[in-house]
Amino acid sequence: MELFIKIHSNYEETLNLTVKDENTMSEIHKTLDARGLSCPMPVLKSKKALKEINVGQVLEILSTDPGSMADIPAWTRTTGQELLTSEERGPKDFRYLVKRMK
Amino acid sequence: MGKLLMVCDSAATDKLQTLAIIASGMVTSDHEVVIFFMHDAVYALKKDAPPEPEVTSIYPEVAEKVNQARKAGNLLHWKGLLEDLKDLGDVEIVACVQITEILGLEKEDLHPMVDKVAGVNTLAEQAMLADRVMFL
Predict the structure, then answer these.
(1) Which of A25, A58, B15, B123 has the fewest Cβ atoms within 10 angstroms?
(2) Residue A7: which pLDDT band, with cuts at 50, 70 and 90?
(3) Does A67 reach chain B within 8 Å, measured CB to CB?
(4) Distance from CA of B76 to the nearest CA of A (A)
(5) Has A39 been annotated as catalytic?
(6) Structural domain includes residue A88
(7) Is residue A12 part of a domain?
(8) Class of domain B3-135
(9) Residue A31 sits in which domain range?
């Protein structure tokens, strides 16, 4: 099962397949799995990932860093990107959707 | 966006790690960062610098846990982080000319991330051009 997930996530990233977010119905163009990384890596990697999608496209960020609940919103505010979703799905389980605005 | 000048004269691992983390916050927020390394911090940038000392703290538990996290690979090394930031944004790294000379070094003897070796008037100019100055 673990192997399947790994192959699937690489496959999805390589082909840049789009999936839809259930709540916002936004198309997700890229997923950054930043789970296990601590500050400042989730934002640093998000910044890099955002550069790899086009303006208007959406980046999904998965994180286990409790600081990301404050830092991802602060980062999107400062850099003029749009935070579509900020979710705490469980203990140390956070998910964000960021739309690239510029 | 804004510009931050950071000045560091220490080669203490925890200090340099803090410097790189703050720089990361600034660069990912689209701010320009100039880092001026002085005194011991220049020595830490030597290409053939001796192995870095472990993090120290007045609290043994802090040192122990931070060093454990470093060994586990949970913390990106400050040099690697600064290299990443140079690729990502506007980061200029300057080494103090005086200590570079005293140590008998040339720019080529320092880590390639160093943009230039310059003196205190460069620092003075950057301090007045920057929106904020931070000394570590």
Answers:
(1) A25
(2) very low
(3) no
(4) 8
(5) yes
(6) yes
(7) no
(8) alpha beta
(9) 17-99
Amino acid at A78: T
User: Do residues B6 and B34 lie in contact, with contact meaning Cβ atoms separated by under 8 Å?
Assistant: yes
To the nearest whole Å, the CA of B98 is away from the closest chain A CA by 33
Residue in A closest to B75 by C-alpha:
A38
The model's pLDDT over B39-90, given as tens digits with 9 standing for 90+, comes to 999 999 999 999 888 899 999 999 999 999 988 887 789 999 999 999 999 9
Mutation to test the B interface, candidates A47, A65, A75, most B Cβ within 10 Å: A47
DSSP labels, B88-125: HS-EEEEEEHHHHHHTT--GGGB-TT--EEE-HHHHHH
Give the 3-state secondary structure of residue A44: helix
Q: Say what the ipTM of the complex is.
A: 0.81
Q: A40 vs B88: CB contact, 8 Å cut-off? A: no
Confirm whether A10 is domain-assigned. no
